[in-house]
Amino acid sequence: MLDVDSSTPPILFHHGEQFRLEKLPADRSRVIYPAEPLPGLPDPDESIRDALLNPIDDDPLPTLLTAGMKLTIAFDDLSLPLPSMRKPDIRQRIIEQVLDMAAAAGVDDVHLIAALALHRRMTEAELRHALGDRIYDAFAPQDTLYNHDAEDPEGMVELGLTRHDEQVTMNKRAAESDLLIYVNLNIVSMDGGWKSTATGLSGYSGIRHHHNVKTMRESKSFMDRHKSELHHSNWRQGEVIKAHGPRIFQIETTINNNTFGYDGPLHVLQKREWEWSAKDRATFIGMKKGLDAMPTSARRKIFQGWKAPYELTSVQAGDVDAVHEATLEHCFAQHIVPVEGQTDVLTFGLPYICPYNVNSVMNPILVMCLGLGYFFNMYRGKPLVREGGVLIMSHPTPWEFHPVHHPSYIDFFEQVLTDTTDPIEIEKKYEKQFAEDEWYIHLYRNSYAYHGVHPFYMWYWGAHALQYLGRVIIVGGDPKSVRRLGFTPASTMQDALELASDVVGPRPSITHLHNPPILMADVT
Amino acid sequence: MNKLTQQLGLPRLPAKFSPVQRFRALGFPYRAPSTPRGLAPAPTEKTTGAHYDTAWARKYPARMARAAIVDGPMRLVVSALAAPDRRGTDRLDSLHGPAIFVANHHSHVDTPLLLTSIPEPWRHKLIVGAAADYFFGTKLTSALSSLVIGAVPIERSKVSRRSADQAADLVGEGWSLLLFPEGGRSPDGWGQPFRGGAAYLAAKTGRPVVPIHLRGTGRILRKGKSLPQPSTTSVTFGRPLTPREDENAARFAARLEGEVAALADEAANDWYQARLRAHAGESPGLTGPESGDWRRSWALGDMSRSAKRRARRWPEL
User: Fold this and answer.
1) Which chain B residues in 268-307 lie under 8 Å from chain A, judged by CB atoms?
2) With contact defined as beta carbons under 8 Å apart, do A417 and A411 qualify?
3) Label partner for A304 (CA 20 to 30 A): which of A135, A264, A509, B206?
4) Do B276 and A99 touch (CB under 8 A)?
5) Residue B304, pLDDT above cutoff 60
6) Regarding the domain delimited by A2-32+340-523, which CATH topology (the fold level of the hierarchy) does it fall under?
7) Which one of B87, B273, B276 has the shortest CB-CB distance to A133?
8) Taking CB atoms and an 8 Å limit, are A137 and B90 in contact across chains?
9) Residue B306 — pLDDT band, cuts 50, 70, 90?
């Protein structure tokens, strides 16, 4: 945490595929920096093996594997981690060891499923990156490695109702397996636990019970599992899965904050501004000038090609609840930064990537989701900004959509947001129509499109912030797009602070969330 | 000219003899003395074979020259001849420090193929165990082998501690070692049983052994052929292995052979089926069926037919 004074250098703001350096007002601004990357495990493969042989509250994995059994391995999809990590991906490391144990037991009937819920399908290249060529070449040609299809009428099964009458649906192959092994990758504390199976392998009829405005508004925050209604609902569904579904062996992992590397072209993004050496400054200036001169498509290609050198900080396996509690501890050990008191104005720069635009375009709806959904909710205790405060985000917010990945987003932006930005009204009036649209379902199942209902969930993700904040300002965004979102455009940070003072009064306190790498504020 | 000849003490020979012939006619002390009859000749110190001193080839000028050769012309030739498909390098991700790389051996192209396939940081600090009697037969071949492939002589015709100790010392100094434990190229297309040298060195140095399987190189320049025939190849790296506490060199060598056989199965089929067979002890062996020559050759023919052919290059439209 840094209190800004007159000697503080301008602060880095991510701005999509570009960057801004902004001078924050002295004596009333503070900057919250992410923690230094924790050291990675010295021998990841040995740690994985140890976790599989000594699970928490469960039997060693080899004792659960028998010849003739039906084994399904589900794994997190391309939305994790962000950005994608350098090879070998953690999923590959784990699944190879799991499969080697399965081979030792003589298990022939093995299916691997990308647990993508209502996300878009992973391409062959993406599956190869996550799992490696060995696994892909062994299973994909036999159709035993595939993407979950939540709209396959033959491929889904109802497991029952929770005590709150929430439906629980699951991928049929996973549900009917003798053992379901879930391989998770926790980048933030929202991931993992029963959410992995209750959401990842579910369909619209199950997911709608927690991906809705009421649940999201009652999740304070959805990054804090024990205070998140989103998670409470998933855990209730987990009870039904436990009672009526397959036996589950959960494997969860955490990674450190080494997003941009200790050296290399982007390492400067991981350092505090006042620690930038002459070489760092030269690197940054060169990078910024180069990026500014490039067309957007070239910038996007460069950034989407970046593979983060993340290191594994923990791996734990066994019982879902016990494993997830251990995972949360490791996750918080890396991300939690103690912060005293709330602020009038919260600022942050939005980077080029969010969970839903890997190898794709960050459209305006995803800008809203990343800012008001993810970054706003990176707190434990209470929000960083006071109720009625102002949020200032920095992002170009281009009026641009990936037509293959986000077809329903285009219609949501053109039809729904032109009518209303109120999440309740949107949910009531439009959700069902988009969710059941046959063309969107066809594209989800056969192309590489997010489900028709997905843009609604993006909007609901920010519902708590929309209700809570006095104003949302986007600096450097396309004014037309920003206004369509219901936000206020500003061309400079100075203008944005002027606009903010209309809401929170003169000389407001300002807090800048210096994210990414990821941090989570523990606000007291 | 005659004056010069006199000054040098060259023998007087008729003018038709050239200066070279006159020089050759020189006797002692210009030439080595002959041994008097009845005395045993003084022992001569051998400077070729296992006695060749390769230290100069590990100094920086030679290393830089070798790096230029390996990453330049050697890589081009290997790409043209072998079109290698390199797999499994991710398995070396957690390997730190020097290692002993072992591979099956079918062809002279194996060494260049591996030199261009073994990833950094091992590639440019790598020595190759080469047959002392073959690669170090003369000073010229010794110098070329040392410079171009970083070869160190290994005795294969007799049991010698000299080669093993030298290799172990070099591994101790941070050099990685590439060995072909079969002891030579395959005579018939099938593999040969692994000898214990690599396993012994692993135990002696405490460094891991990386098994590697080479597929398809026998079609390029197998034993008995002098002209290379381009073909496709694959190089499959396995996980680094260390000897278990209760495992002697012979058992570890057998395990290494089994791992290379499992990698061969993986390269020919798919990884999971290969793992199933490996755990069941049913990986097809490297050495082929124990039967008469024609049946071994017949079985090899089946394998060759199932081998991948070079992909046809279609124009991009």
Assistant:
1) 270-273, 275-276, 278-280
2) no
3) A135
4) no
5) no
6) 2-enoyl-CoA Hydratase; Chain A, domain 1 (3.90.226)
7) B87
8) no
9) very low
> In the A/B pair of chains, how many CB contacts fall below 8 A?
40
CA angle A395, A431, A357 (to 5 degrees): 30
**CATH superfamily to which A45-255 belongs:** LarA, N-terminal domain (3.40.50.11440)
Q: Are A86 and A308 in contact (CB under 8 A)?
A: yes
Contact call for residues A98 and A205 (beta carbons, < 8 A)? no
Q: Alpha-carbon distance B53 to B59, whole Å? A: 12
Q: Give the C-alpha separation, B49 to A473, whole Å.
A: 78
Q: How far apart are CA A34 and CA A333, in angstroms?
A: 11
> Would you place residue B7 in the very low, low, confident or very high pLDDT band (cuts 50, 70, 90)?
low
Work out whether strand B233-237 and strand B209-215 pair parallel, antiparallel, or are unpaired: antiparallel
Closest residue in A to B94 (Cα–Cα): A43
Q: Which among A43, A88, A103 is the nearest to B272, CB-wise?
A: A103
The candidate with the shortest Cα–Cα distance to A87, out of B121, B90, B88, is: B90
CB contacts under 8 A, B 49-88 vs A, are 87-88
Residues 11-50 of B with CB under 8 A from A: none
pTM value?
A: 0.85
Contact predicate A421/A364, CB 8 Å: no
Interface confidence, given as ipTM, is 0.78
Classify strands A343-349 and A379-380 as parallel, antiparallel or unpaired: unpaired
How close does chain A come to B182, measured CA to CA in Å?
A: 27
Å from B86 to nearest chain A CA?
11
Of B90, B94, B273, the CB nearest to A87: B90
C-beta atoms of A103 and B279 within 8 A: yes
Contact A45 B94 (CB under 8 A): yes
Q: How many CB atoms within 10 Å of residue A297?
A: 10
Residue located via tokens 């016990």:
A322
Scored b (16 or more CB within 10 A) or e, B16-28 reads: eeeeeeeeeeeee
DSSP A451-466: -TTHHHHHHHHTHHHH
CA distance A87 to chain B (A): 7
Nearest residue to A228 (alpha-carbon basis) of A328, A159, A118: A328
User: What are A296's two structure tokens?
Assistant: 């957007």
Record: contact B270-A103, CB cut-off 8 A:
no
- Mutation test of the interface with chain B: which of A112, A131, A134, A311, choosing the one with the most B Cβ atoms within 10 A? A134
Q: What domains, with CATH codes, occur in chain B?
A: 60-221+229-283 (3.40.1130.10)
| Distance between CA atoms of residues B98 and B173, nearest Å | 9
How many angstroms separate the CA atoms of A152 and A320, rounded? 27
How does pLDDT run across A271-304, given as a tens digit for each residue?
999 889 999 999 999 999 999 999 999 999 999 9
Give domain limits for chain A: 2-32+340-523, 45-255, 265-307
Mean pLDDT of all residues belonging to chain A? 96
